[in-house]
Design a protein that fits this description.
single chain, about 80 residues, mainly alpha, 4 helices, about 70% helix, globular
């Protein structure tokens, strides 16, 4: 928040579009996704994320850019987990 100079909700709202552009740059996206994935891990040695969390993460990180693909993949993950 400090780097964004967003010390109020309204300033944060104004900063988000630029932040989103920054994250979507290929040079930054991998770092962002890796950080997001690691943030979702609850234990130090955990190597995977539960289905519900990964569906939320995919929607958050990729949903605005690849809506149809993300929706289909999330549906696949949710249906596929019944067969595991």
């Amino acid at each position: 928040m400090k780097a964004l100079r967003a010390d109020t909700v309204s300033k944060l709202r104004k900063a988000l579009p630029e932040l989103e552009k920054e994250v979507k740059r290929p040079s930054n996206f991998e770092d962002f996704y890796s950080y997001s994935f690691c943030y979702c891990l609850t234990e130090e040695k955990q190597k995977s994320i539960d289905i519900e969390s990964i569906c939320q993460l995919l929607d958050l990180v990729l949903g605005s850019h690849f809506r149809a693909q993300v929706d289909y993949f999330i549906e696949y993950l949710k249906v596929g987990c019944y067969y595991c």
